Amino acid sequence: MNSTRRTILAAGLAAPLPACVHGASMNEIFDVIVVGAGVFGAWTAEHLRRRGRRVLLVDQMGPGNARSSSGGESRLTRAAYGADRIYSEMALAALPEWKALSAAASLPIFHETGVLFCFNEMVDYARQSIEAHRALGVPLEELDRAALAGRWPQMNLDGVAFALFEPDFGALMARRGVEETVRRFTARGGAFRIAHARPGADGREVVLNGAPTRADAIVYACGPWLPKVFPALLAERIFVTRQEIAFVAPPDGDDRFEAHALPGWIDYNGGDVYYGFPNLEARGFKLARDTHGASFDPDSGDRRMSDEGAALLRAYLARRFPALADRPFTEFRVCQYENSSSGDFLIDGCPGREGAFLLGGGSGHGFKHGPEVGRLMADLVLDGRVPDQRFSYAAKGVTHRREVL
Predict the structure, then answer these.
(1) CB count, 10 Å around CB of 395?
(2) Domain 105-172+239-339's class?
(3) CA 1 → CA 30, 142, 188, distances in Å?
(4) Is CATH 1.10.630.10 the classification given to domain 3-68+175-237+342-391?
(5) pLDDT tens, residue by residue, 183-219
(6) For the whole model, what pTM was predicted?
(7) Domain residue extents for the chain
(8) Which of 88, 71, 90, 105 is nearest to 377 (CA)?
(9) Residue 174 DSSP class
């Protein structure tokens, strides 16, 4: 065991994540190598480690880095998924993992703000979500306009007929959550390296910084880079879009936009879907438009907010949160969705490369499911246990349509 690993294990879970090599020797033999330390890759590595495998996790820039789809401040966790009950079940299975990680961390990873879903009428998505929550025993409140106005008067409810409220869900701190997952993974015997990776001569070989490296299995959890790593397989089946996010300064001395006073929210009114968070950890009120943006290259794409995007967000604030309409934007972010044809995840073996596996297609809603996605991939790698058919490569078409919301 090298000195880096001894230092991490001796320090236990309080050890910081070193800058480059964590428990990984160039000559060490691993059972599984996971490429990509976003939320899917990190949790896959952790579940493989829990099952006693020697695991190397690699990333070209670092866990939850600024170019990854798992970077950034916050993500919603929710169980409302309309007719797609499989995602409700996955979110429920993942939540205890996030809560346990948060409880053990020095700073919170999960904020139980609740999540509010606003509708202009009773649509199938809302009706099916209500049915799913009842079947699964998940608390869900149905609120009319009067109840909404009484609880959250800082919202202008024009166009809102009713809302659903999930009290047990809320916000996940994204980058921090991924970093903490990887830190605990290395502290408990896993290995991490910063390295550029590309597929090798066969499914059990990956080239790390130019060096061919072999393992019993290679999992490629490359997020928006997955179509670049396997262009023949995925260039038309995973499409990457540019998503613009803003943070807004609440009025000075006004606590109506703090986490104790306002939940996370999704607004299904007026065509485009918008979502956001209260002023988590004094970073600002978060606002984003969920409509798929333009095609985006994670390596070279411009990550500055567009004037058009800023104007759309400003107009939405004026409509739904009027007290914020003229408040300054404090920060802009551009991240990306890596969308499958339907919005379903990709959890499958790699066609034509025995021993290699494909993991991705988070499609803008994947972060919350990270612990459960990692478990499903570990079961596939170690037991050959195939997850639901909707996660297969064969189910990924080239006609892009948004079915999972």
Answers:
(1) 16
(2) alpha beta
(3) 13, 56, 13
(4) no
(5) 999 999 999 999 999 999 999 999 999 999 999 999 9
(6) 0.93
(7) 3-68+175-237+342-391, 105-172+239-339
(8) 90
(9) H
